[in-house]
Each structure stands twice: as structure tokens, then as C-alpha cells.
Amino acid sequence: MKNLIVGNWKTNPVSLVEAKHLFNLIKRGVKNLKKTEVVICPPFLFLSELKKNQKPIKLGAQNCFWAEKGAFTGEISPLMLKNLGCDYVILGHSERRALGETDMMINKKITACLKAKLIPILCLGETEEQRKTGKTFEILKKQLTAAFKNLKLKIENSPLCVAYEPVWAIGTGKACDIREARRINNFLNNLTHHLPLLYGGSVNAQNGIAYLTQAGFQGLLVGGLSLKVNDFVKLIKQVDFL
Ligand code: PGA
Fold first, then answer.
1. pTM of the full predicted structure?
2. CA separation for the pair 32, 53 (Å, rounded)
């Protein structure tokens, strides 16, 4: 399997012109990759325009709804994303969980995405408080079990990725210690029967590589850095040289 670098742009940038510019700069920087797949997850609004000229980058969404279509004001369905040419969808990001997304909703979304042949990137992670009180493994297991509940497919045979994103590391500049990340990687590997695992949370051009070489992850979920073209491209190239 290729290494996977996923850029989560979150609610950035604020115009299509800027989104195209950023996307094109990244694209130019990552030509001829051999061992790495790059996925950009822009705001929904920019997907169809970026799709027109996306190669070699794959596109992902940052969320989606679970129903295929119908009376669900304001929602975007997995089928719409698939029809647009999306390949991936980030699900259960902690910023969405903080807004009220539950394990049950995430479970429905994963089921719907697999049905639509989109690859879910399921995000898991403990808060600072949970970590301090020694609940990390318990929380990760609970989130994972709930997200995969009643999946008809065997998870090890499903096109799924799991991203370990400690909440306290997201956007804080405090990335997870490599030894701790290694322990969590082992734990999740056993639970997920070796699905591809990504690390996310304050990844930068200096610390990113070690999560693959020392902690056993197959890729990275990158937030802030994916908006900084030079550093993001530098990280992708390092990963491709591994
Ligand atoms: P960050 O965000 O890289 O800015 O910490 C990661 C994420 O939220 O996926």
C-alpha cells in the first residue's frame, strides 16, 4: 500500500480563486510521486471545480450525511460526493464531535460511505482530560467499536482508514510523543486487524516522517500545514523518499 498524506483544509480558504491557487501549487510540487498518495479535503463548495484538474491528487470531503437523498436540508450525501469524483471522506473529526456529532451518527455515515464506495477516514482521539486520567485506550476502543458497529463487511477487508488524532494535539503545536504514538499504533493495529492507520495532530515538516518510520503509521492527516504549500510539499517529498 502507498503512504497516504491527507490534507484537511477545514474552513479554508475563503474563496474559490484562493482554493484553486493553493491546489495548483500543491499539485505542481507533488508531480511524479512513486510511493505516496496525496488527498486534499477542501470545503465541499470547491470540490467540483478542483475536480476538473485534480490529477495526481485525490479529493476527499471533510464530512457527509448518511442518506443517499431526500428531505435533509443542508446535508450532502455520500452518493453526491461519489458522483462528483471524490474518493475519500473524513468522518468523526474531533471538531465535528465537539459540535455534537455522536458515535451513532458516525457509524451511520461510515456504513453509507462504504455503500457509496467512498473510503472513510475515521478519526479517533482522546481529550487532554481523558489522557491525564489514563483513559486513552478505553476511549479509542469505545470510539472504534461504536463506529464499526453492525458493519456487514469484515472491517479488515473494507476500504477504510483510521486516523489517530489526539484532541489535545490538534492545532496546538503539541504533537504526540513518538513512543506514545508507537504504543497507540500497536493498540489500534490489533483492534483494526491492520487497517491503514494515519497520525494527525500538529504534524509539521520536521516531525511528520517519524510517525511513519518510528511509530508504524502508514500516513498522516495534516491540518494547518496543508495550507502552507512549501512545508506541505516538503513533507510529502520526504515521505515519498522513504
Ligand atoms: P493540525 O490539524 O495538523 O492543524 O493539528 C489536524 C487535523 O485537525 O486533522
1. 0.96
2. 16
